[in-house]
Amino acid sequence: MSETAGASVLRARGLSKTYGKDAALVRAVDGVDLEVAAGETVAIMGPSGCGKSTLLHLLGGLDRPTGGEIWLAGRRVDQMSEKALARMRRNAVGFVFQAFHLMEELTAVENVELPALLAGRPPRAARRRATELLDRVGLGDRAGFLPAALSGGQRQRVAIARALANEPVVVLADEPTGNLDSAATVEVLRLFDGLHAAGQTLVIVTHDSRIAATAGRMIAMRDGAFIDETRLTGGTRGDLGALAGLDG
Amino acid sequence: MQQEVVLALLAKEPSHGYQLRARLRQALGPLGEAMNAGQIYVTLTRLEKAGLVTSGQAPGLPDRPDRKVYELTPAGQQRVADWLAELGWPGPAPTEFHLKLVAAAAARLADPLSIVDAQRRELLRRLRDAQRAAMAEPAASDAGLLLEGLVLRLQADLRWLEACERHWTGRKEQR
Fold first, then answer.
1. DSSP string, chain A
2. What CATH number corresponds to the domain at position B13?
3. Over the stretch B89-143, which tens digit does the pLDDT of each residue have?
4. In this complex, do B151 and A210 lie within 8 Å of one another by their Cβ atoms?
């Protein structure tokens, strides 16, 4: 196809997901086109119920679309067999959820290595990678802790480390700061920034304007469809002083 | 520069102007970068004329404002105490922007929704700057706390713009 198709790692065309039928038909996702380039951070924003979580589930192969196509790393995902889809999810996608979804009876490092073990990696290599990832999210000294002994922000960082376990093509995050206070949100934003700098492709659905403001591209979603797209370029730190309100 | 701010900075101990400036920079971080170095001296001179501060200087040094040591007078101390007890709060209702939308819609001069959209982009740009600055601050810095205040306000304003969007979308559909 075109040159842009080669540079994009995630692509959706005419994507739709409907529930029910006739008068009770709900169009949760309604004709979405999306192209995410390698290394891009895209934030999809909208009120609750706009279909953004459903869209993320479709993109990550957690759910099947009613119509349209999804391509991930050059392979068509929407028509894959259940088995191939599961393998794709495990190896090519990292998920981060609002409620962390950590295994409570496993330690931080055991949670992080789990996806690698499920993918058939040797246990020692999986553990080595998990330890590195915990270091990377600043939790190297918490490797042996159970999730219950960690703060909300720390648990989400463990979940982000787990999402990276199999070096995914794309990380998909669903309201990753939804359960976090202000300071923990800043930690997660810093982490996403670091991932972006390292070339990781990120798609984040959120209603947190701080995430949207720090992403490279922001898409507004209403009633299952994209209604607006904004590229926020450049940080103009020089203007900040004008916001201090010290004049006069 | 607000006079009370300079007075209150001086309440710690008699100080040179540059020491006040250093305290201000510490508290403001990147939000203080646009501050003009001369502003504090202009304010100090006014405060001295008003009898709220006095100045002295070490013997043998040239007679320049930046060599002077400033000190609060009793009247200056009283003004600081009054200021600390004041309940004034900046940030009134977004009246001007609201009236802009009402007038634009009534006169059909512009689409309120495109005005809201342009404003949203501007606030997102500011939020991006403020959030990036907050992320660059070390944990528990004074300036980081101020940046958090700015971030939270911008978020509240963005939420209100969403309400504006819903309101004016509804109006459009009624017409």
1. --HHHHHEEEEEEEEEEEES-GGG-EEEEEEEEEEEETT-EEEEE--TTSSHHHHHHHHTTSS--SEEEEEETTEE-TT--HHHHHHHHHHHEEEEETT----TTS-HHHHHHHHHHHTT--HHHHHHHHHHHHHHTT-GGGTT--GGGS-HHHHHHHHHHHHTTT--SEEEEESTTTT--HHHHHHHHHHHHHHHHTT-EEEEEES-HHHHHHSSEEEEEETTEEEEEEE-----GGGGGGGS----
2. 1.10.10.10
3. 877 789 999 999 999 999 888 899 999 988 998 899 899 999 989 888 888 899 9
4. yes
